[in-house]
Structures are given as C-alpha cells and as structure tokens.
Amino acid sequence: MLKSDIIDFFNKLAPQWDADMIRNDGIINTILDNAEVKYGSTVLDVACGTGVLFPDYLKRDVKKLVGIDISPIMTDIAVGKFDGNQKVCVITGDAETVAFEDKFDCIVIYNAFPHFPDPENLIRHLTSLLALNGTLTVAHGMSRKMLDNHHSKTASKVSVGLPSESELSALFSKYLDVYTTISDDKMYQVAGRKKKV
Question: Is the pTM for the entire model greater than 0.90?
Fold first, then answer.
C-alpha cells in the first residue's frame, strides 16, 4: 500500500466526506470517555479528515486540539470549518513521522487505523508523542466485521484490514498499558496509557 494512493483516495472522497458521514453520538461519547478526553486535555486527532470529531472534543473543553491528516484536501476543509478557533490547529502531514515540541494527553485514531501500512511503527511513534500517563486510542464507530466488509468494497487498495482486538492489544502492550478493549457488533476500541519509563 503506497501513501500516494492513500492521499489520492482520500483527496477524492474529501468533498463529500461530511455529507456521507454516519454518526452515532452515543458511540462517539463512549469512545471519547474511554480515551479520557476531558476538560483541559491536549489532544492529537490522527487522520482527522475534515474534523468530524472536532466539535466533540471542543464540547469537552479541551485545552488544545491538533488534527493531522495526510490528505491536503481533507485538511483544507477542516481548516475552513474551524478557522479562527484558537484551540484548533490543523496540519497536513504524515502521522508516522510528525514531530511536536509538546506532548499530548490524548491521541485518538478514529475510523482510520487500517489505512496505515505499518501499524507497529505508527503506535511506537505516537507513543513517543504522549505525555506521561497520556492515552492512545484506536477506535471505530462500527464493528470490525462491518468495517472490513465496507473496506473490501470501496477501499481494498488502501486498507490493510483491522486487526482483532486481541492482536491490537498485544501490539499496544509493547509500548502501553492496555486498559480498554472492546469489539462488539457496534464498535471497536483499544486504548492504552503510556508506561512509566
């Protein structure tokens, strides 16, 4: 899977992304509760797309929100929607290599994990961006089976598939203390807290 293919794929989808989005506020709130996104948090939204979760973070009164996406058209739309909000910063870039001076309390990857070709490298790198006791969450607002079925129809060239929750938990546990593992017919989430060094 080439990153250039991923960029092209999501650039083409970006103009209709918000119109095609299916939301379940209850699931999103559960995911963000489990991710420990709360008042005063600093958040990195990985593969943020058009900023679909930005209003949810802002409702929780986070201190700072940084969204990063590899698709410049996605980030252009996100910037247009949140331009002028002093808490929000949107970056076009590669989450596997991006560097920041400050560490984050919460890093969330929502509805995007299968589109990263090297999951372990991504998790290792993102862990390095966490503050002590910071949390990293991989979550999807649908079941693993539904997501893999969806990707097999529309995104097979830009998806490596979603690992089982036990496989992802095992990968997380190399770098993080896993504290949430959910995989049912409604949602999927694995969350871990940065280990003390």
Answer: yes
